[in-house]
Specification:
mainly alpha, globular
Length: 231
C-alpha cells in the first residue's frame, strides 16, 4: 500500500515536469532538474511546520481556517518556500543562464513540493485506519489522484510559473525585487482564489477548479512565449 501511494503520488508531478520542460528551447541538465525537484519536495516539512504556527497565531485572533486571511497566509508561505527552493539551487549556477530558466526551475521545485503533498494524502488514504477495503481505497485514491493531477498539482505549477515569469522579467529589466514582489502577490492571489473556490463550492469543485486552471495554464504558456521574444 505504501509503495502504491508513493507511485500514485509521484506520477502527476513527473508528468507535469515533462510537459513544462518541453517549453525550454535549451534543455537544462537532468541532474539539476532532479535536484530542484527533490529540494522542492523537501520544502514541504518546513512549510507544514510554519503553516501550523501561522494557524495557531491567526486562531488566537479569531481568524477561522476557511477565512480569506487564513487561506492567503497559508498560500503565501507555500509560494515563498517554493521560490526559495528554486533560487537556492540556481543562485550563481552557470546553468542558470537564460531568463526562461527561472520559470523552468521554479515550476520544477513546485512540482516536487506538490509530489510530497500527494504522497502524504494518498498515504493517509491507504493507511489501515482509513482503508475499509482495497477496492474502496483504490476508488478513493482514484478520485484523490484525479483532483490532485487536475487540481492541486497543476495549481502549484501555475502559481509558481507566474512567479517565475516575474522573476525572469526582473532579471531582464534588472529590477529583481520589484518584479519578484509583483509575482509573489499574483502567485499568492491565484493560489488563494483556487483554494477558496474548492472550499466554497465543494459540490462542483472539479468543474470549477478545472476551468480555473485551464485559464491559468493558458496564461503560463503565454508567459513562456513572451520570454522567448524577450531573449
Amino acid at each position: 500500500m505504501v509503495y502504491l501511494a508513493i507511485i500514485l503520488g509521484i506520477l502527476p508531478g513527473l508528468i507535469w515536469v515533462f510537459f513544462y520542460l518541453q517549453e525550454d528551447p535549451h534543455p537544462e541538465p537532468k541532474r539539476l532538474i532532479l535536484t530542484t525537484f527533490i529540494v522542492g519536495g523537501m520544502m514541504a516539512l518546513p512549510v507544514l511546520m510554519l503553516q501550523l504556527l501561522a494557524q495557531d497565531a491567526l486562531n488566537f485572533f479569531d481568524i477561522g481556517k476557511n477565512s480569506i486571511i487564513m487561506i492567503a497566509v497559508l498560500a503565501l508561505i507555500e509560494e515563498v518556500f517554493k521560490f526559495f527552493a528554486a533560487f537556492w539551487i540556481t543562485y550563481k549556477n552557470s546553468e542558470f543562464n537564460e531568463p526562461i530558466d527561472a520559470m523552468i526551475y521554479i515550476i520544477t521545485a513546485a512540482l516536487g513540493f506538490a509530489t510530497i503533498e500527494n504522497i502524504l494524502i494518498l498515504g493517509n488514504i491507504f493507511s489501515g485506519n482509513n482503508a475499509i477495503s482495497l477496492t474502496a481505497s483504490l476508488n478513493t485514491a482514484f478520485n484523490a489522484i484525479s483532483l490532485r493531477f487536475i487540481g492541486a498539482t497543476m495549481l502549484h505549477a501555475l502559481a509558481s510559473g507566474l512567479l517565475g515569469y516575474y522573476w525572469a522579467v526582473g532579471i531582464i529589466k534588472k529590477s529583481l525585487l520589484k518584479y519578484l514582489g509583483y509575482g509573489l502577490i499574483l502567485a499568492t492571489l491565484i493560489h488563494s482564489i483556487f483554494n477558496y473556490l474548492i472550499i466554497r463550492y465543494q459540490s462542483v469543485n472539479f468543474f470549477i477548479s478545472g476551468l480555473f486552471l485551464v485559464l491559468g495554464a493558458i496564461l503560463v504558456l503565454v508567459d513562456f512565449e513572451k520570454l522567448r521574444k524577450m531573449i
